Amino acid sequence: MDDAPASRIEVRELTLAYGGDIVLDALNLPIPSGRITVLAGPNGCGKSTLLRAIRRLHAPRSGHVLLDAEDITTLNGKALGRRIGLLAQSPSAPQDMTVEELVRLGRYPHQAMLQPWSPRDDAAVAAAMAGTGVEALRRRPIGSLSGGQLQRAWIAMVLAQETEVICLDEPVNHLDMAHQLDCLELVARLNREEGRTIVLVLHDLNLAARYADQLVFVHRGKVHRRGAPEELMTSEGIAEVFEVDAAILTDPVHQRPFCIPHRRV
Fold first, then answer.
1. What is the rounded CA–CA span in Å between residue 167 and residue 11?
2. Residue 9 near residue 30, CB atoms below 8 Å
3. Strand locations in 98-231, DSSP E?
4. Domain that residue 71 falls in
5. Each residue of 132-148: pLDDT tens digit?
6. Does residue 23 sit in the same domain as residue 45?
7. Most buried among 24, 161, 177, 258, using CB within 10 Å?
8. Which stretches make up the ABC transporter domain (predicted)?
9. Alpha carbon distances (Å) from 200 to 106, 169, 170, 204, 262
10. pLDDT tens digit string along 115-124?
11. What is the pLDDT of residues 169-181, one digit of tens each?
12. What average pLDDT score do residues 15-25 get?
């Protein structure tokens, strides 16, 4: 990654813990501007906790997160919310809230006492619902939605926030194959056409390899390796991080590495 662009986010010597249990220990990670970074690793390795720390929802024991060279602790909540959007793994909202009401919550960081709802807010909400295919569901209460429909509504809320950086924690976890592709192609389009910096947590290594510019293996509290998918997706690398023997082929359509796990190490 020597030729990578300047980092939009810099994680420096970040130590994160739950009580006395350290999850990430003095972790360093540059997240390049205008690229898609995918975090991958075993369950419990700290990927989701790292995303929360980037959005300042998990206070570090030590270390810093910099956004455009500025420590995020210097920004107020709404200012940070206008620059970094996060969809956590298990978000919640009142079940009688409609889809449109949920998506409108994404505009909260843009609201102020003397700044009422504007045509720009309407346009952002409409574009987010159109991009995720939930316009027809706009008046449905979220409690009536399927898991996949609900996930798309939550993604629309984050898109309506119109942030420079979008962090998504397992965004395709509840989606069928078609909607997984819809979601990740939407994310890729936001990156490609609008220059958004994207940080994803994905468990599916093949999807990670397909969409990542920078793939990051998190293991035992550290960044085990980071780089292009072609560099990380090796039989040796998969065995070290995931304790699985795997064959690595080349996807004939996208020319990206493709992992076929066949047994535990």
1. 14
2. yes
3. 165-169, 197-201, 214-219, 222-227
4. 1-83+164-178+193-233
5. 889 999 999 999 998 88
6. yes
7. 24
8. 9-245
9. 19, 6, 7, 11, 26
10. 778 899 999 9
11. 998 887 888 888 8
12. 94
